[in-house]
Design goal:
The protein is α+β, with helices and mostly antiparallel strands. About 20% of the residues lie in helices and about 35% in strands. The protein contains three helices and eight strands. Strands 2-3-4-1-5-8-7-6 form an eight-stranded mixed beta sheet. It starts with a strand and ends in a 7-residue tail after the last strand. Bound molecules: cobalt (II) ion. The site of cobalt (II) ion (CO) has 6 residues, from strand 1 and strand 5.
């Protein structure tokens, strides 16, 4: 089902500071910040081989990333796997009795369709499934 690790999501308090850190310390080039209104986050990505790191800063206090930061502080938040067909992946997981956050795919960044698997159903790791749309992102 998994094609590759698409990205690792990091929760940060200050996207600009985090992007500057990775740019200056590691020489990577984070993308322009993009707001994902439905998630209440501002994200920027940078490429690492076939995968990416997604930096996420909350834009409102009730966003899931804001709640994560309040509870756990900055750090690793989720892994995203690229899948060919996110609906098919959800169907398969549902049939296997896996606890899902999203019963249906939703719109991700960069024209992707995404769905989250509950960390309780995945050994404590928040897991995102991403079906690519037109351009890279998510
Ligand atoms: Co993600």
């Amino acid at each position: 089902m998994f094609r590759r690790i698409y990205h690792l999501g990091y929760a940060v308090e200050d996207l600009e500071a985090a992007a500057a850190f990775y740019r200056e310390s590691f020489g990577v080039e984070p993308s322009e910040p993009e707001e994902v209104e439905s998630e209440g986050i501002l994200t920027a990505m940078f490429r690492v081989g076939d995968s990416m790191i997604e930096l996420m800063q909350p834009t409102r206090p009730d966003s899931p990333v804001a709640r994560f930061l309040a509870k756990r502080g900055e750090g690793f938040h989720h892994v995203a796997f690229e899948v060919e067909d996110v609906e098919e992946a959800l169907r398969r997981l549902r049939d296997a009795g896996v606890e899902l956050i999203d019963e249906e795919p939703r719109q991700g960044a960069g024209g992707t369709r995404v769905a989250f698997v509950h960390p309780k159903g995945a050994f404590g790791v928040l897991t995102e499934l991403v079906e690519l749309g037109g351009k890279e992102g998510g």
